[in-house]
Specification:
Blueprint lengths: L4 H6 L32
Protein name: YhfH family protein
InterPro entries: YhfH-like
Amino acid sequence: MLVNSTEFFKNLPPKKCAECGNNIDEQHECYGNKCDNCMQIK
């Protein structure tokens, strides 16, 4: 069965930082894998 792409992205689990494991506050389909804290963005 095909899934609507909007539903697919809405149902993704929260993205986790590759270094600290905290949830990343951004869109889940983003390519980044580190949180702002680990990337030292203020």
